[in-house]
Structures are given as structure tokens and as C-alpha cells.
Specification:
Shape: elongated
Order of helices and strands: HEHEH
Helix content: 40-55%
Number of domains: 1
Strand content: under 5%
Strand order of the largest sheet: 1-2
Largest sheet: 2 strands, antiparallel
Oligomer: single chain
Distance between the termini: 19 Å
Radius of gyration: 18 Å
Number of helices: 3
Length: about 130
């Protein structure tokens, strides 16, 4: 009865997107001094789901997770335009820090949606 609620699927998708983007931001920051490294990113969550025909299935991140095998990430990465650093590195730590803050806000939003939905379900069952 409660296993197929879209609000939980959306909260999961938001959290998964935030996790993948945080990993990309961390990799960009770790390679800030690597000559020739070009920063990568993924499209914003809202933009990814504006297309009504696009569905993203849950993806296993390790063997045995979600009773399935590992697969590609649902949001493809792309290179960000380089900033023109003399060593060919396009990473701007300031921009990556701002992205990290944005990702944290997105993840906190996903958790808030999940917690709020759980509270509504508990209240409807008479368990506060």
C-alpha cells in the first residue's frame, strides 16, 4: 500500500542526484592543482525532470545493493567550460564551493520531504 508513493521516489531521486553531484564536486576540488584537468558537472535536478517522458530508475551502487547489480549513474556528467588557468586547469575552487553549498541544500530538501511525508503517514495511522 505505501511502497509505491511518488513522494518517496522523488525524495530518493533528489538525494541520489545530490550524492552524485557532491562526488563530482569533490573530485573537481581534489584535482584543482592537476594540470589540464577540466571540471565536470551534471545538470540540475529540476532541469533533469522537466521532461515528462524521462524516468530515472534506482541504481545499485555496490554488489547486492537494491538486489541488483551496479549500473551507470542516471545523470550523465559533462565538462564545464574552462576558466582559462595558465596550467590548463579549469577548476575554480570558489565555484566548486558554491556548488557544494547548493548540493547540501538539495540534499537537506530531500530529507525534509522524506521526514515530512513520514510524519504525515504516521499521523494518518494514528502513530505520532
Amino acid at each position: 500500500m505505501f511502497y509505491d508513493l511518488n513522494v518517496f521516489k522523488t525524495a530518493y531521486a533528489m538525494a541520489t542526484h545530490a550524492g552524485q553531484r557532491q562526488a563530482i564536486v569533490a573530485r573537481n576540488m581534489a584535482n584543482a592543482d592537476t594540470p589540464g584537468y577540466q571540471p565536470r558537472d551534471i545538470e540540475a535536478f529540476q532541469k533533469a525532470f522537466e521532461n515528462s517522458g524521462r524516468e530515472v530508475a534506482m541504481t545499485a551502487t555496490r554488489h547486492g545493493h537494491l538486489h541488483g547489480g551496479t549500473g551507470p549513474q542516471p545523470w550523465p556528467e559533462f565538462e564545464v567550460d574552462p576558466s582559462g588557468d595558465p596550467n590548463g586547469n579549469g577548476v575554480s575552487l570558489e565555484e566548486e564551493m558554491l556548488k557544494a553549498v547548493e548540493v547540501r541544500r538539495q540534499h537537506n530538501g530531500a530529507l525534509a520531504i522524506y521526514k515530512s511525508s513520514m510524519n504525515i503517514l504516521r499521523a494518518s495511522l494514528g502513530r505520532s
